Amino acid sequence: MDENDPVVGIDLGTSYSCVAVVENGQPTVIPNEWGERTQASVVSFMEDGRVQVGNDAKRRILTHPRQTIYSAKRLIGRYIFSPEVKKAKAVMPYEIVEGPNNGVRIKVLGEVLSLPQVSALVLKEMKEIAENYLGQEVSRAVITVPAYFNDNQRQATSDAGRIAGLEVLRIINEPTAAALAYGFGKHLNERVAVYDLGGGTFDISVLEIGHDTFEVLATAGDTYLGGDDIDMRLLDYFADLFQKQTKINVRKDLTALQRLRDVAEETKKAFSQKNSVKVHIPQLYTAADGSTLDLDTVIDDKTFTRLTMDLVQRSFKVCDEALQLGGLTVHDLDGVILVGGPTRLPLVRQSVEHYFGKQPMIGIDPDEVVALGAAIQAYALVDSSAEAFLLDVTPLSLRLATVGGFTEQIISRNTPVPIDRTRTFTTSRDNQERVRIRIFQGESNREEENEYLGEFEFSGFRVAARGEVKIEVTFEIDSNGIVNVSARDPETGQSASTTVKFSSGLSEDEIRRGAEQVQSLDLV
Amino acid sequence: MTAESNEFVKRVAGWLQVLDHIDYYQLLQVDPRASLGQIREAYHRQSKLFHPDRYFHLADDKLKKAIYRISKRVTEAYVTLRDPRKRQFYDKQLVESERRLLRYTEQSEQQDKEEKKQQKAKTEKGRQLYQQGMQEMKRKNFVAAERTFKMAMAYEPDNELFKQLAEEAGRNIKTDYRIK
């Protein structure tokens, strides 16, 4: 690989993705050949084996709902039994099936795909857009994730990058990337909050920007809150209204449901500029006899506020939490940065202004700011002269299973990374050959209320009477927010061999085969 | 000084050699009486020197690993010293162990918790003021924190913890880091 190969930043979003690069010291968004600056994170499979990705694929949700995958980010790195997956199974027109180790897979046209593979197809499209624009191969990227993503979700995103044929230089947090895009090269001395309401997730981070150093003071989030939820509220409103008018439940009609989803998204977007939206859906329902029914209504901003206000309010509970964790109040902040499409809504803007007591900073497009920040970070990593430098934190506490379904905290949330902590364990039986530990992420003492990360087994230490052997286990969180575990015998200094059984994630072999499968697909 | 220069490699090797023999203050190169703001500044300064992101482009894996190890220790020092309670215990541990225990470890944490339980305020009012004072410390309202801890001392003149905390708050008043 050539040292001078370009490096890009990719914002892999729930609804849209964006790729950017630093050219002549300036971060720039890379448009596709049609001049579109963001691409729908949608992958559509065709019967002839070809695959469509992006805005064209999005149009196929309506015509080919069973073979068009969207909002994959809501499912990536999750277990089949998680509430988000259950919810998705109820509303997504494509088929969600169980994979090995309680993992999630998508079944489409007889093929079974993992979520990292689906996301890899989006990443591959972004890679190709960048290659077309730059006229060069692109093999290295920084990819962003919501700050509140856990280790499983980060690992899965990183796997997606590898499957797409990218060397993932770093996984960075979306709000941190946004702050970087705002503060880069400006030599600020400010404390800012980044309010990031995306398609599927909400993050709030508070950063201190001092010259070229970006230190995250606190972060909190909700991976179940986003613009999609606003769409759902509108969809429900339309469906209920239609049922009231016609006594017909359109939710049972896949095509009608998808059309409602489209109209809901458009209606939401329209509220960014209007305070009343006229909705007309011709032939929403076709009866058995061929007769059709339309849906007509007008939604004013009062109704829109009533339908969605509690979602917006929920974000401020998360803001309270972040400020409290950082030992701060809104008065300690110099500014607020808005990230994500839904922050264009006047309802969101006004609420943010009201909560923080100051006008949010506007300047960089909220759909592009994360990708620009990722590009800056990519550039800073490979170019030693770049003056931008991130000090981030881990969003969730790392925990160890003890006994009786309880856990014990090892590294608390909001601890700066990279960091490690060492714990000493002893054997509990005579001649014990293995020690097994299970780790979790979350804020509860109870095992089941945390996210299960994996199981580690150590062997290769001395075999002796119980309690005689000590094993020093080091838990490490790296700059990507990814957890590593290693162990050694402190007396002999010999490192114990570690077997990781990682949760729902992919094995090295699966990643390799996944990459082969993805590379063999013909992207159009 | 470029990252791969001989001088830099020597410097990293030097730090690595002493890493297990220096305390957190020496690692951050600050005075043991440094204020929170000064510790934070030092963390930024030392991170800039040793954060792995700064050396991502290096080809030398061994050098990168060494830098990474130092970086993690710098973070550990910061995490300990920025927390007034942990820092207090750490300072005591340094003295009592005659500088043998230089890190805030799992054992430190357990012992710390134990001692804090015993050291708790003896009066209801003292406990209230202690909690209030710690809140103010967290918010970096050092003036209010000092006042609160001094009030707590009025209720419990013999409470060493209150005295130390009042002093610490006082130290921070003069050196609040943020430039408005």
Compose a concise summary of this entry.
By secondary structure, chain A is an alpha+beta fold.
C-alpha geometry of chain B: elongated
Architecture (CATH level 2) name of the largest domain in chain A: 2-Layer Sandwich
State the CATH class of the largest domain in chain B: Mainly Alpha
Please give the alpha-carbon distance between the first and last residues of chain B: 33 Å
Are there runs of chain B of 5+ residues with pLDDT below 50, and where?
none
Q: Into which percent range does the helicity of residues of chain A fall?
A: 25-40%
Q: How many runs of DSSP E, i.e. beta strands of chain A?
A: 28
Biggest β-sheet of chain B, characterized? none
Query: Taking all residues together, what is the mean pLDDT of chain B?
Result: 88
CATH architecture of the largest domain in chain B: Orthogonal Bundle
Q: What is the number of domains of chain A?
A: 3
Coarse structural class of chain A: alpha+beta
Strands of the widest sheet of chain A, in order across it, are 21-20-23-24-27-26-25-22
- Domain count of chain B: the total is 2
Oligomer: heterodimer
Radius of gyration of chain B: 19 Å
Protein chains sharing the most extensive interface: A-B, 31 and 27 residues
Q: Could you say which structural class the secondary elements and strand pairing of chain B correspond to?
A: mainly alpha
Can you walk me through this structure?
- The complex is a heterodimer of chains A (524) and B (180).
- By secondary structure, chain A is of the alpha+beta class.
- In chain A, 31% of the residues lie in helices and 33% in strands.
- Chain A has three domains: 7-225 and 323-393 and 511-523, Nucleotidyltransferase, domain 5 (2-Layer Sandwich), CATH 3.30.420.40; 227-306, Actin, Chain A, domain 4 (Alpha-Beta Complex); 398-493, Substrate Binding Domain Of DNAk, Chain A, domain 1 (Sandwich).
- Chain A starts with 6 loop residues before the first strand and ends with a strand.
- Chain B has two domains: 6-114, Orthogonal Bundle (Helix Hairpins); 120-174.
- Chain B starts with 5 loop residues before the first helix and ends in a 6-residue tail after the last helix.
- Chain B is mostly helical and 180 residues long.
- The interface between A and B is medium-sized, with 31 and 27 residues.
